[in-house]
Specification:
single chain, alpha/beta, 18% strand, ten-stranded mixed beta sheet, binds adenosine-5'-diphosphate-glucose
Length: 466
């Protein structure tokens, strides 16, 4: 029996699309919240993390696996061919499932070839990962790239406990049924022992689908779904940040320098910050419209405020991501063109990523955090912004009520991200908020960010899976 010598728990095998090799932890941020979260989960179980290297080559087809052990975590990565990347990753995962699950049916592409590529790569993952899995290992599969993987592993005879966590929202049934073969996809999910969602809302949509479209027996109370004699548990596990790790970043020279740089460059103006992957689900153009509306309404406050948007490019091979970049550049250009002075530019748009240390410093220097996704499974940036605040003089978080995080961060200033008026009003409210109120809101939010952290998330999921 394979057990971790550190904890006596069964070994954990994580399977996700991308794998962040632990020594490159600093790079985790640019890949999204997933990477940092998983590293923490694997570290004290001497776990194995299997997935795509991010590289393109034909070697994955020949079964070539690159294995490395760093810092107690073994990573096993495979390359994907150009065709696999095009069909599975850019195609079905990021041009079909991602837009559909974020309620962007208008951007979703339904192509037979990419759907086949998705199934083919899931099959390849199962074929190459199965021999690495020992009898008693607990297997945890992540995210929309690998929905059918559990069923593929079962078809190879695996009897292990296998769980699945979806990092993005689960759409309403009436939207989800526009996916060709939706039923086949969801049936594969019922081969997992446990299926996790970020919030009760996404979970309820999933249970609704299982009951109404599959005719499964659903117990809403404990989240069990029974179909064809098999029972799967489906529950909500809101992901958090690695609080201990993140809050210590504030003590680093890099964070202090970043904070100083930001403060020195904005001088007496209040800085407001947005940090996102450049993705249409993050509502960045809509946010710029809200800022434009604020300046239209209160032109005399143009010298009070500078907005800094940090948005590194992401998924650049997908057309909708190229378009959003252009839209954003135009919108920022329009406002800056109309409102800049020789010594003052209202919006700074930075098209690159920063380390978590630097982000900590930028968050701390910013009296307003603007996190306004149109749809978001959770949104860890909102939690990081709160974690980076000075408890004696905290900034104000303006948060979309359509982010999963809004359910936990009810003391943020919640906004409808589609409404420029709402965003403009929230900015005014944040600028005028007295210290007492800022502190009271911060204290409630920081307690949730600290306690509902990534370690608690992992422990909750693995306890229910175990
Ligand atoms: P993402 O869509 O990537 O994650 P998010 O939760 O905000 O979104 O995580 C982003 C992570 O990347 C954060 O740690 C953040 O600091 C970092 N990051 C974002 N922009 C950055 C930038 N400009 N420079 C450097 N780092 C940056 C998906 C889902 C989310 C869910 C997470 C985790 O879409 O809803 O919260 O997975 O489950």
């Amino acid at each position: 029996m394979e057990r971790s010598p550190l904890t006596d728990n069964p070994r954990l095998v994580v399977i996700s699309n991308r794998v962040a090799v632990p020594k490159a932890r600093g790079a985790a941020g640019a890949q999204g919240g997933l990477a940092g979260a998983l590293h923490a989960a694997l570290k004290d179980r001497e776990g194995l993390w299997f997935g795509w290297s991010g590289e393109e080559s034909e070697s994955g087809r020949t079964g070539n696996i690159d294995t490395q052990t760093n810092d107690g975590v073994t990573t096993a990565t495979i390359d994907l061919s150009q065709r696999d990347i095009e069909e599975y990753y850019n195609g079905y995962a990021n041009s079909t499932l991602w837009p559909l699950f974020h309620d962007r049916l208008d951007l979703a592409k339904f192509e037979r070839e990419t759907a086949k590529g998705y199934e083919r790569v899931n099959e390849r993952f199962a074929e190459l990962a199965a021999p690495l899995i020992e009898d008693d290992d607990v297997v945890w599969v992540h995210d929309y790239h690998l929905i059918p993987l559990g069923e593929r592993l079962r078809s190879r005879g695996l009897k292990n406990r296998i769980g699945f966590f979806l990092h993005i929202p689960w759409p309403a049934t009436r939207l989800f049924v526009s996916l060709p073969y939706h039923e086949r996809l969801v049936r594969t999910m019922l081969h997992y022992d446990l299926v996790g969602f970020q919030t009760r809302e996404w979970l309820d949509s999933f249970l609704h689908y299982c009951r109404t479209e599959l005719g499964a027996q659903v117990d809403e109370e404990n989240g069990s779904v029974t179909l064809d004699g098999r029972t799967t548990l489906a529950r909500a596990y809101p992901i958090g940040i690695d609080w201990d790790h993140f809050s210590k970043l504030g003590e680093t020279g890099e964070a202090r320098n970043a904070q100083q740089r930001m403060m020195a460059s904005t001088r007496r103006r209040i800085s407001m910050i947005g940090v996102d992957r450049l993705d249409y689900s993050k509502g960045i153009p809509e946010r710029i419209d809200g800022i434009g509306r604020f300046f239209d309404r209160e032109p005399e406050r143009i010298r009070d405020l500078v907005f800094v948007q940090i948005a590194p490019p992401s998924r650049e091979d997908v057309q909708s991501y190229q378009e959003i970049r252009e839209t954003l550049e135009q919108k920022c250009g329009q406002i800056n063109g109309a409102r800049s002075e020789v010594d003052m530019v209202p919006i700074r748009y930075v098209n690159r990523g920063y380390s978590h240390e630097e982000l900590f410093g930028f968050f701390r220097a910013s009296k307003i955090g603007l996190v306004t996704p149109l749809r978001d499974g959770m949104n860890l940036v909102a939690k990081e912004y709160v974690a980076a605040q000075d408890p004696e003089d905290p900034g104000v978080l303006i948060l979309s009520s359509f982010a999963g995080a809004a359910l936990q961060l009810q003391d943020a200033v919640l906004v409808n991200p589609h409404s420029p008026d709402d965003i403009a009003h929230a900015i005014r409210k944040a600028l005028d908020m007295p210290l007492d109120e800022r502190k009271a809101r911060y204290e409630k939010m920081v307690a949730s960010v600290r306690d509902d952290n990534v370690q608690a998330w992992t422990a909750d999921f693995l306890r229910d899976l175990g």
